[in-house]
Design a protein that fits this description.
Elements lengths: L30 H4 L1 H31 L10 H31 L17 H17 L6 H13 L2 H11 L24 E3 L16 E6 L8 H8 L1 E5 L19 E5 L11 E3 L4 E3 L6 E3 L5 E4 L11 E3 L5 E3 L17
The structure holds FE2/S2 (inorganic) cluster (FES).
FE2/S2 (inorganic) cluster binds next to loops.
Membrane topology: Multi-pass membrane protein
Keywords: 2Fe-2S, Cell membrane, Disulfide bond, Electron transport, Iron, Iron-sulfur, Membrane, Metal-binding, Oxidoreductase, Respiratory chain, Transmembrane, Transmembrane helix, Transport
Protein name: Cytochrome bc1 complex Rieske iron-sulfur subunit
Length: about 350
Amino acid sequence: MTIEHTDRSTDVVEHPEQFTNPGLPPHRPRLGDEDPKANKLSERIVLAIFTVSVLASIASIVGYFAIPVDPEAGSMGNTRLSTIVIGVGLGLGMLGIGVAAIHWAKSLMNDHDKVEERHEIAGDEETRGTAVEMFNEGVRDASIARRPLLKGAVGGALALAPLPFLVPLIGNLGGDWDVSRFKRTAWAPGDNGDRVYLATDPTNRRIKAAEVTVGSLFHVMPWNLPEHPNYLDEKAKAVVLLVRLDPQDLKETEERASWSYDGIVAYSKICTHVGCPVALYERETHHLLCPCHQSTFDVTDEAKVVFGPAGRALPQLPIDVDENGYLVAQRDFDEPIGPSFWERER
Ligand code: FES
């Protein structure tokens, strides 16, 4: 390849690996650099976006308190609305800060190119002094001191942005921690002594022992639980997994020998680590897996923990069949469901 020599400057190309420094393209001023009105408009736009961020963060916090999730209503309507308002407010609050900062940088900050020559990584005294001077110049370029309104807006947006995260957290920490609620579930027989049928979740259909084939897994809740005035709270505690094994695979203690029916066993679905729903069943190994932190429970061995951070086995629901072959709970769980820390008094 032929390299053309040029007489444009003293940087004449003499070796293939050398080239003329093209330099920086000429600086093109933005509209706002020359027109004070355009500059003011840009400032107002940045201000407006920060204001949207502030309002969105406030809306998120207000939504948390104004739209209480009411499990007694028996519907997910409020839960969805609350989640949407908190989520949209939180998202807009963060997005507003990002968009406003970008617009501010592009339209109001100094846009002159700066060239940093290569140098040793460890700077000498003079370089470090230059860096400090450049930083201070950057702060001056951000023109925050000259724009008190923007200063207030950015301060307000940054101060409010963490609150949508913190308020629900603090609110929930101060919630109702009556641990006795975890010691009783909707599987307890009614006042008249009627035992509770096992039903499919969410279709609320009673389950016959004959339809639970070996290797199958059923998600189960107490029959007619959707009619309970406190449906969601009760369901959160009472959900159960039903599995049928070859009875010879079951390692049952004498005490629990009567808790299963012909190889069918029922365990609480609430992980004993921190309460995620255990929903994965490995048919080959007979292991139940919690997707949150991989706690693994052995269904053949009273759902004891074989891996992961869970501290104790899944509580077992003693079951039986009625005269028509429907599965029914003998009584409530013998121990509190869920993480062990729920059992602690505060
Ligand atoms: S909640 Fe199940 S392993 Fe953590």
